[in-house]
Design brief:
505 residues; mainly alpha; two-stranded antiparallel ribbon; two-stranded antiparallel sheet; 23 helices; globular; disordered N terminus
Length: 505
């Protein structure tokens, strides 16, 4: 049995000289290998650049903090609000990704959990002056018991008067948002139980019904004593919700918890349920417990996002928690990559940008301008499809998904430019709802061109930036695993390079 030429010697002299595994690995193949020395000297590929990756991560965090300093100090109010909104919706989207992406359960009721957390947080954090105004209002439906639910009153009753000042608002908000998240988590447990008997579309319908039922019940006399009916209540402090530091702090905690959960034993179980629930049960996994746990954790962070969302807006109203909110989160997950935290944040950034800076899409323009814009979009879709086919080495390059939108786009551009004098193209049209339509078209394009999303299920790593192939064994690993370098045993090193193009089925 012979080792692959150059393994552990000339190709990677730094690895062989630094650890001594190259020579030992070659000896292993010749039969003189010392297992104890190899175990002591072996370093997996994901540990070989730990110092570099740690330094780059710290540099990236420092750059993010610098950006937040610049945004908080000298940026416009609009930009500050956009950054805060990205963080709030990022929390909600990452939490929804735990159920939809990691566990593989389609949930459509995330806006219901946000409503619960938002109303609980808003009611507990209302200032005393706002409560007095609501008590004197003839249109207020809040009961005396609901008016007494206040973190400030609780602190006064406990003798903690120092925590009731305007300077300590953040303490009261933390208590309120934590309670809101816990209440939402309890409802998440209730919604999680139907997932034990339902799957697929049936479970999606149940979660959607829950979200809509919560929103509609909040306006009925049954719950209007706590929600003030359809009117809601204004005066929720916006200091926390519009602060980039607080919102990004909550986002950082959410991402940290979700990342640790995803790559833990619980996360692997959830991914196993996503891939094959029956096989997971056969392996002894308690799928019922893990699915309910996923719903509870997701609902908790959705409740936190709802509290921040109410604080960002400054009021608690039912029209803030329509199904469109969940639709935006689903678009962000699908565009970024189902199951990928990195992709979900990229998708959230895109959705927030379209929502906040898409005002020109809903202005009034001549019909010729809309035709040209549609043509440009079709040409852009064709170029993206061509680029993806080149990257994936699909043949033929000019498939129908490329030349059909390209031809239609060029025709539309020519008609729009050359037909400006035509009376039919001079009719003005205002694009009501074009931001939502744009997101819908973006979702359709992603599903056609790259169904797995921008990131797929992968996460950002510095190895990806430096184009390291972590899925390929290193020379040290090849030297210690003889079958990787033996053609007779089917090792990849001994096979021919199958670098041909992939034929598009």
């Amino acid at each position: 049995m012979s080792a692959r030429p150059g393994a552990g010697s000339g190709d990677r002299s730094d690895a062989g000289a630094g650890s001594g595994v190259g020579a030992e690995g070659a000896g292993a193949v010749r039969g003189t290998f010392d297992p104890g020395a190899a175990v002591r000297a072996y370093r997996p590929h994901y540990l070989s650049h730990r110092v570099r990756d740690s330094l780059l991560t710290l540099a990236a965090l420092a750059a993010l903090i610098l950006v937040l300093f610049l945004v908080d100090g000298g940026a416009s109010v609009k930009l500050k609000q956009v950054f805060a909104l990205f963080a709030i919706w990022g929390i909600a989207t990452v939490s929804l990704n735990l159920v939809n992406g990691v566990t593989g359960i389609l949930s459509l009721g995330h806006h219901g959990f946000m409503l619960i957390g938002g109303y609980v947080t808003g009611l507990l954090i209302l200032p005393t002056a706002t409560r007095d105004n609501l008590a004197r209002s003839a249109r207020s439906e809040l009961s005396d018991f609901a008016m007494g639910l206040s973190v400030e009153n609780w602190f006064n009753a406990l003798g903690l008067d120092s925590l009731t000042t305007p300077e300590t608002l953040w303490v009261r908000f933390l208590v309120a948002v934590l309670i809101g998240g816990i209440v939402a988590a309890l409802f998440g447990v209730v919604v999680g139980f139907p997932s034990l008997r339902l799957r697929g579309d049936y479970l999606a319908i149940v979660t959607f019904a829950f979200g809509e039922a919560v929103r509609l019940l909040a306006s009925t006399p049954m719950l209007s004593s706590f929600t003030n009916g359809a009117l809601g209540f204004a005066g929720v402090p916006s200091d926390i919700g519009k602060s980039v530091w607080w919102t990004f702090g909550f986002l950082a905690i959410t991402v940290f918890v979700m990342a640790r959960l995803k790559f833990s034993s619980y996360g692997r179980v959830l991914q196993g349920i996503r891939e094959d629930e029956i096989a997971s049960e056969a392996m002894g996994v308690n799928t019922a417990y893990h699915k309910v746990l996923a719903f509870a954790i997701s609902a908790f962070f959705a409740g936190v996002a709802g509290g921040l969302w109410v604080s960002w807006v400054g009021t608690a109203r039912l029209d803030l928690f329509l199904f469109f909110l969940t639709f935006y989160f689903l678009v962000a997950i699908s565009v970024g990559g189902t199951g990928s935290i990195t992709g979900v944040l990229l998708g959230t950034a895109l959705v927030v940008w379209v929502r906040q800076y898409g005002d020109p899409l809903e202005q009034t323009y001549p019909l010729s301008t809309w035709v040209v814009a549609a043509g440009v979009v079709l040409v852009a879709v064709a170029l993206v499809a061509l680029l993806l086919r080149r990257v994936r080495r699909l043949t033929p390059r000019l498939a129908p998904v490329v030349y059909v939108p390209a031809a239609l786009g060029l025709v539309a551009v020519l008609v729009g430019l050359l037909g400006k004098g035509m009376p039919a193209l001079q009719v003005t049209w205002q694009g009501f709802g074009m931001r939502a339509i744009t997101l819908s078209l973006l979702l359709m394009a992603i599903m056609i061109l790259r169904p797995v999303g921008i990131m797929g299920r992968r996460e950002f790593t510095w190895a990806w930036v430096f184009r390291q192939r972590l899925d390929e064994p290193t020379e040290d690993e090849r030297a210690q695993d003889a079958w990787l370098s033996n053609p007779a045993l089917g090792g990849r090193a001994g096979t021919a390079d199958g670098g041909g193009d992939e034929v598009d089925p």
